Amino acid sequence: MAILKRGLAGEPVKLLQRKLGVEADGRFGPGTETALKAYQTKNGLQVDGIAGPDTFVHMELYELVLLRTGSRGETVRRLQQALGVAADGAFGAGTEKAVRAFQERNGLDVDGMAGPATLAKTGIFKEMTPDIVKRSEVGAPASGGAAPGGEAATEPAPSRSIWGTIKSFFGA
């Protein structure tokens, strides 16, 4: 699932840490977990020290919202309502099928996951702007920038989800 919890590292963790006002080292450790639990408690969210879609929406970290099989909560329920499927708040096979069909009809990458690009097309979050969609992706420098190895880049690399930067720091 697209969640952040203790032991993970990467750019999404840095974004979360900045929002929480803790050191943004990109490593989700005990300090981040404690700050997140305090935020969840203060804001009436499920207090588990895990940042998922509902926490991201509440924190206005829309670029981190990624719904997929196994996701649960109010954000999933809103997606299900927009897709016209049973709105039970649990992203299962039926929701994935509906997401795939929606993506195909709307000229999106068909992967069965609802990230910012898909959610922007549904219209369920006015906050899912083209800028948010762009911030949810990472890629190489634009044309003319330096590419790995120091040579000039002639074309940007394809964008990929910011979630691709996540790794575990356990055992490292």
Task: Characterise the protein shown here.
This protein has helices at 11-20, 30-42, 53-58, 74-83, 93-105, 116-122, 130-135; strands at 8-9, 137-138, 160-161, 167-168. The strands form two sheets. The chain has a two-stranded antiparallel sheet. The two termini are 22 Å apart. The chain has a single domain (8-136), classed as Muramoyl-pentapeptide Carboxypeptidase, domain 1 (Orthogonal Bundle). Mean pLDDT is 87; it is low at 140-158. With 172 residues, it is mainly α. It is built from seven helices and four strands; from the N terminus they run E-H-H-H-H-H-H-H-E-E-E. Residues 138-160 are annotated as: Disordered. Residues 139-159 have a biased composition (Low complexity). Residues 22-58, 79-121 form the Peptidoglycan binding-like domain. This is Peptidoglycan-binding protein. InterPro entries: Peptidoglycan-bd-like, PGBD-like_sf, PGBDSf.
